[in-house]
Amino acid sequence: FDKARVTVIFVLGGPGAGKGTQCEKLVQDYGFAHFSAGDLLRAEQNRPGSTFGAMISEYIREGKIVPMEVTIKLLENAMRDALLHPPSFPEGSTLAESWKDGKGLFLIDGFPRKMDQAIKFDESVCESSFVLFFSTTEEVMLERLMERSKTSGREDDNRESIVKRFRTFVETSMPVVDYYRQRGKVVEIEASPPVNVVYANVRVAIDQRVG
Ligand code: UP5
Ligand code: MG
């Protein structure tokens, strides 16, 4: 992707930290296209005719990272499609206009979460402007995910999978956050407070860096 035409913000944080919740709000208020790597993988898993369905399902239940080729391809396709057919946004989304000039604004949620993905995406797709990193405790995340499990239907919202997801996050995904932190790219947001308090801090970070 032409760096002048796309702005990419990576949204990272542990399982249940609130990445998806905060991204939804940013989509409404600013006019970002939001792509959750996990959502794209779940859609691919359920797509009739997909050759990856069983593999993805197995990885997600085990809390492991799906081989990067699959995830990067899904993200690239989604981004390309959004540039060709810009999403529509509510009246007043402050940055929505830029899509009309052929510019794309992307929130990439839950990716990259392994070093190989980070390096490959930066090299072959696009470098991110910065990383929004939501940090909170496992206690908070566990409580949120157990509550969500009552209605989410996600096959990884059970205690056994959640513990595995936490382990992968610490061992495999935190090194990615640290890698970007060393490059001065990480904006860390305390994610334990109520949604709107977290969001107020997110807005400050976005307003300072995008627009
Ligand atoms: N909630 C949110 N914010 C709250 C707040 N401030 N106060 C109180 N409650 C709050 O939120 C979780 C729940 O908490 C919701 O019920 C919400 O209302 C509440 P959500 O916004 O959904 O959190 P999020 O961080 O998005 O949690 P999610 O479960 O989606 O994170 P994961 O990172 O675990 O899941 P993801 O979908 O990104 O990935 C799933 C799996 O896909 C991975 O484990 C992996 O196996 C695979 N994957 C890959 O292989 N490669 C990738 O690149 C990406 C994923
Ligand atoms: Mg999510």
TrEMBL record:
<feature type="region of interest" description="NMPbind">
    <location>
        <begin position="36"/>
        <end position="66"/>
    </location>
</feature>
<dbReference type="GO" id="GO:0006221">
    <property type="term" value="P:pyrimidine nucleotide biosynthetic process"/>
</dbReference>
<keyword id="KW-0067">ATP-binding</keyword>
<dbReference type="GO" id="GO:0005737">
    <property type="term" value="C:cytoplasm"/>
</dbReference>
<feature type="binding site">
    <location>
        <position position="42"/>
    </location>
    <ligand>
        <name>a ribonucleoside 5'-phosphate</name>
    </ligand>
</feature>
<comment type="function">
    <text>Catalyzes the phosphorylation of pyrimidine nucleoside monophosphates at the expense of ATP. Plays an important role in de novo pyrimidine nucleotide biosynthesis. Has preference for UMP and dUMP as phosphate acceptors, but can also use CMP, dCMP and AMP.</text>
</comment>
<keyword id="KW-0547">Nucleotide-binding</keyword>
<feature type="binding site">
    <location>
        <position position="165"/>
    </location>
    <ligand>
        <name>a ribonucleoside 5'-phosphate</name>
    </ligand>
</feature>
<dbReference type="GO" id="GO:0005524">
    <property type="term" value="F:ATP binding"/>
</dbReference>
<comment type="subunit">
    <text>Monomer.</text>
</comment>
<feature type="binding site">
    <location>
        <position position="154"/>
    </location>
    <ligand>
        <name>a ribonucleoside 5'-phosphate</name>
    </ligand>
</feature>
<feature type="binding site">
    <location>
        <begin position="64"/>
        <end position="66"/>
    </location>
    <ligand>
        <name>a ribonucleoside 5'-phosphate</name>
    </ligand>
</feature>
<comment type="similarity">
    <text>Belongs to the adenylate kinase family. UMP-CMP kinase subfamily.</text>
</comment>
<keyword id="KW-0808">Transferase</keyword>
<keyword id="KW-0665">Pyrimidine biosynthesis</keyword>
<feature type="region of interest" description="LID">
    <location>
        <begin position="147"/>
        <end position="157"/>
    </location>
</feature>
<feature type="binding site">
    <location>
        <position position="117"/>
    </location>
    <ligand>
        <name>a ribonucleoside 5'-phosphate</name>
    </ligand>
</feature>
<dbReference type="GO" id="GO:0005634">
    <property type="term" value="C:nucleus"/>
</dbReference>
<feature type="binding site">
    <location>
        <begin position="16"/>
        <end position="21"/>
    </location>
    <ligand>
        <name>ATP</name>
    </ligand>
</feature>
<feature type="binding site">
    <location>
        <position position="148"/>
    </location>
    <ligand>
        <name>ATP</name>
    </ligand>
</feature>
<keyword id="KW-0963">Cytoplasm</keyword>
<keyword id="KW-0539">Nucleus</keyword>
<protein>
    <recommendedName>
        <fullName>Uridylate kinase</fullName>
        <ecNumber>2.7.4.14</ecNumber>
    </recommendedName>
</protein>
<feature type="binding site">
    <location>
        <begin position="110"/>
        <end position="113"/>
    </location>
    <ligand>
        <name>a ribonucleoside 5'-phosphate</name>
    </ligand>
</feature>
<feature type="binding site">
    <location>
        <position position="193"/>
    </location>
    <ligand>
        <name>ATP</name>
    </ligand>
</feature>
<dbReference type="GO" id="GO:0006207">
    <property type="term" value="P:'de novo' pyrimidine nucleobase biosynthetic process"/>
</dbReference>
<dbReference type="GO" id="GO:0033862">
    <property type="term" value="F:UMP kinase activity"/>
</dbReference>
<keyword id="KW-0418">Kinase</keyword>
